[in-house]
Amino acid sequence: MKTIFFTVLLFFTQICLSQIYMCKDGITKFTSEAPLELIKAQSKKTSGAIDPSNKSVAFSIVVETFEGFNSGLQREHFKENYLETNKYRTATFKGKIIEDIDFTKNGTYSVRVKGTFNIHGAEKEKIIKGKITVKDKEITIEATFEVPLDDHNIKVPKVVNQKIASIIMVEVKANLKPKT
């Protein structure tokens, strides 16, 4: 009887520890600060997941969901000419948290996540620094990182290279809740 009790207890402990946290409404912002122009855009449709049991992290965004820009024409050029969203619909990041975190305790943790960032069909391994806050069974992730356009084969014509930065700053903030 004790063996059955401990087996059931172990099984339920595994289920609790392998709880997946997800979101579909994370916010991703980008900024291009070039000598002649500042461009900002954001999307409130970032999807993400964390599996605390193995420290896996995955995020995805449909690139067409970015809004903002300085004009409609600029948004159109972003989609059609630079990121070619008809061919490369999503940007993704998949990786693992390097530091150990106790996801069962409320707190804020500085972390690094090592993984693969894919945009415009080109993958690049990255280590992204960020902050994870655990509070009342919810997890908030915040990160800021650079995306060099050359790393992802994103070409900018010379005629506008003073208006588009060669390195884009990206910010992500997402509040993840237990998957039910």
Notes on the protein architecture:
With 180 residues, the protein is of the alpha+beta class. The protein is 15% helix and 52% strand. It has 2 helices and 9 strands. It has helices at 2-17, 72-82, and strands at 21-33, 38-51, 56-62, 67-68, 90-97, 107-119, 122-135, 138-148, 167-178. Strands 1-2-3-5-6-7-8-9 form an 8-stranded antiparallel β-barrel. Strand 1 and strand 2 (38-51) form a beta hairpin. The longest helix has 16 residues, at 2-17. The chain is elongated. The two termini are 31 Å apart. The relative contact order is 0.20. The model is unreliable at 1-17 (pLDDT under 50).
Short description:
By secondary structure, this protein is of the alpha+beta class. The protein is built from two helices and nine strands; from the N terminus they run αββββαβββββ. Strands 1-2-3-5-6-7-8-9 form an eight-stranded antiparallel beta barrel.
Report strand %. Answer: over 45%
**Count of distinct strands:** 9
* N-end to C-end Cα span: 31 Å
State the shape: elongated
Amount of helix: 10-25%
Find the structural class using helix and strand composition: alpha+beta
Instruction: Characterize the main sheet.
Output: 8 strands, antiparallel, barrel
Q: For the largest beta sheet, what order do the strands appear in spatially?
A: 1-2-3-5-6-7-8-9
Rg, rounded, reads: 19 Å
- Unreliable stretches covering 5 or more consecutive residues: 1-17
Give the mean pLDDT.
Answer: 88
Number of helices: 2
Could you give the order of the helices and strands? HEEEEHEEEEE
